[in-house]
Structure formats: structure tokens, C-alpha cells
Write a structure and sequence with these properties.
This protein has 299 residues and is of the alpha/beta class. The chain is 28% helix and 31% strand. The chain folds into two domains: 102 residues, 2-Layer Sandwich (Alpha-Beta Plaits); 191 residues, Vaccinia Virus protein VP39 (Rossmann fold), CATH 3.40.50. The strands form three sheets. A seven-stranded mixed β-sheet has the order 10-9-8-11-12-14-13, sandwiched between helices. A four-stranded antiparallel β-sheet has the order 2-3-1-4. A three-stranded mixed β-sheet has the order 5-6-7.
Length: 299
């Protein structure tokens, strides 16, 4: 079945109301990318939390609709919402099912993180010639998190290097569930995944079932999170929420337990390190491109 794709470039200040209007108009999916990137490979894909905005000033937005959606009606809705938006800037194209699948499959190849952890597209069969390989089969289509972004890669490498056998883990901001599922397949006994996006919780559950670990994964919204202390906590969100959540995260990690934080731009790590030093020792910073991971040990 074909789909209709609407695309346009908007200012960051208009993002929330435009995205909400498109969803109200029947959008099945909305994707946000950096409009200033020179090539597709430079696009950073982020999953902003509810009420948060992307880091970019100019946003390339695309929305997917049923093929028979009313194009004139969509243009009218956007013109009412953003009067300064010129209708000719709104572009439409038909997207075939096979093209939509290939669009992300072309960019999502099997990837290794650390010594033994591999992330595979759900419909690519691992070769099975490495008995030590730990494979996560993933459909990233519903939420952020495939390993292609440096923040996710940094967290996956940290998990691969950790001793997870029989341990409990919290994945705060679980997105597609990739970190939670990786922890379980690396030996964790139980993982609690937390996300404020209901779609992320659905994606995490689907991917956990696909990987045969759903019985050891608990998924909750932040307001339902009981914050029972775990052996390790990983949070791949943004620097602002990480700073605000520091006391809560400290209460969530057992003495001697491990912490990994990412979603942090280079230059934001100094203040966060000082913030977390109140409760954590052995604080280490690892950088990948413009992003960093902070790892620490609970005092």
C-alpha cells in the first residue's frame, strides 16, 4: 500500500504546534531532522521528551499519512497554524511500501559494539559463526535507538564492557528498548525501562518480544517508576533532564553500582560531572564526535 509523505522546514519555535497539528490531522509518523546538515549521514536523529525541543534551530520535518489524505486540507491546517509559512514550501510525494522499508534498511546495517555485542535489523539473519556473539534483533521504526547515533553507541559499548550477569538494570529513556534488550542479552537478570513516550514503551515491548527477553523487562512511564535501587543505571536522554534527575538517579543505584549517562554534547559534561560527584566516584568521560558519555560508580 502506498503512503503520502508531507515534508517542510520549520523553525524550532514552531515544532511542537506543527507536530501536534499534523498528528491531529492523521499523521501516522513524524520525523525530525537537522535541516542544516549537508548530507543525510550528518543528520542527528533525536527523540525529544514530552515538552522538550530538538537542539536544532531549523528542523526538516516529514510526516507520513494514508495515501488518500486530503492534501489541500493539510496545507490549510498548516497555513492557519503558521501564517508565515508559504504553501509552496510544503512538499508531497507518494512513498511505496517497499521504498519506505528500504529507506531505513539502507542505513541500518549489522553493527558491533565492544567485544561481542551486535545489533542486527530484525529481518537480517546473523551468520551464526561466532559462538561468543550477543545479537540484538531490532526494528527501530517506532522510536529512537538503533546504535547509529554516537550516544547510543557509547552506551552499548559501556554495557558490553560491564559485568551484567545476574544484575538488575534501569534504562531511563528506553526509546526503542535497544539498551534494555542489550543488557538482558548480555546477562542481566532484570531491566526496568522508563520512558515518557507511550510509543517508545510499545516499541520496547515489541523488540523485547522479538528477542525473547520480554519476561525479564518491566516497562513503565516516569510517574509509575518506583525507583527501586538497581545494580546499574543507564540514561541516554539530554543534559538538562540528566542534571534535574541526579538526586533520583543517585537513589536508584546501589552502593558500588554503575552509572552511564549520554545524550550529552561536548562542553556540557563538566557541569554534569560536578553535579554527580556529590554521590558518585570514579567519574570518567568518553567522547564520540560531538557527544560524550559519563560513567561513574555509586559511592
Amino acid at each position: 500500500m502506498p503512503w503520502l509523505e508531507l515534508s517542510l522546514t520549520i523553525h524550532q519555535a514552531d515544532q511542537a504546534r506543527v507536530e501536534l497539528a499534523l498528528e491531529d490531522a492523521g499523521a501516522l509518523a513524524v520525523t525530525l531532522l537537522d535541516a542544516q546538515a549537508d548530507t543525510p549521514n550528518e543528520h542527528a536523529i533525536l527523540e525529544p521528551g514530552v515538552g522538550e525541543t530538538p537542539l536544532w534551530g531549523e528542523i526538516a520535518l516529514s510526516a507520513l499519512f494514508e495515501a488518500d489524505a486530503d492534501r489541500a486540507g493539510l496545507v490549510h491546517v498548516l497555513a492557519e497554524l503558521v501564517p508565515e509559512l508559504e504553501p509552496e514550501r510544503i512538499r508531497f510525494r507518494e512513498v511505496a511500501d517497499q521504498d519506505w522499508t528500504r529507506a531505513w534498511m539502507d542505513d541500518f546495517k549489522p553493527m558491533r559494539f565492544g567485544r561481542r555485542l551486535w545489533i542486527y535489523p530484525w529481518n537480517v539473519e546473523p551468520p551464526g559463526d561466532d559462538p561468543d556473539a550477543v545479537v540484538v534483533r531490532l526494528d527501530p521504526g517506532l522510536a529512537f535507538g538503533t546504535g547509529t547515533h554516537p550516544t547510543t553507541a557509547l552506551c552499548l559499548e559501556w554495557l558490553d564492557a560491564a559485568d551484567l550477569a545476574g544484575r538488575s538494570v534501569i534504562d531511563y529513556g528506553c526509546g526503542s528498548g535497544v539498551l534494555a534488550i542489550a543488557a538482558l542479552k548480555l546477562g542481566a537478570a532484570r531491566v526496568v525501562g522508563v520512558d515518557n513516550d507511550a510509543q517508545a514503551l510499545v516499541a520496547s515491548r515489541d523488540n523485547a518480544e522479538r528477542n525473547g527477553v520480554a519476561d525479564r523487562l518491566v516497562l513503565v512511564a516516569p510517574e509509575a517508576f518506583a525507583a527501586e535501587p538497581a545494580d546499574l543505571l543507564v540514561a541516554n536522554i539530554l543534559a538538562g533532564p540528566l542534571a534535574e534527575l541526579a538526586p533520583r538517579f543517585a537513589a536508584c543505584v546501589k552502593p558500588g553500582g554503575g552509572l552511564a549517562l549520554s545524550g550529552i554534547l561536548h562542553g556540557q559534561d563538566g557541569e554534569l560531572c560536578r553535579r554527580y560527584a556529590e554521590w558518585f566516584d570514579d567519574i570518567r568521560v568518553e567522547q564520540r564526535e560531538d557527544w560524550v558519555r559519563i560513567a561513574a560508580r555509586r559511592r
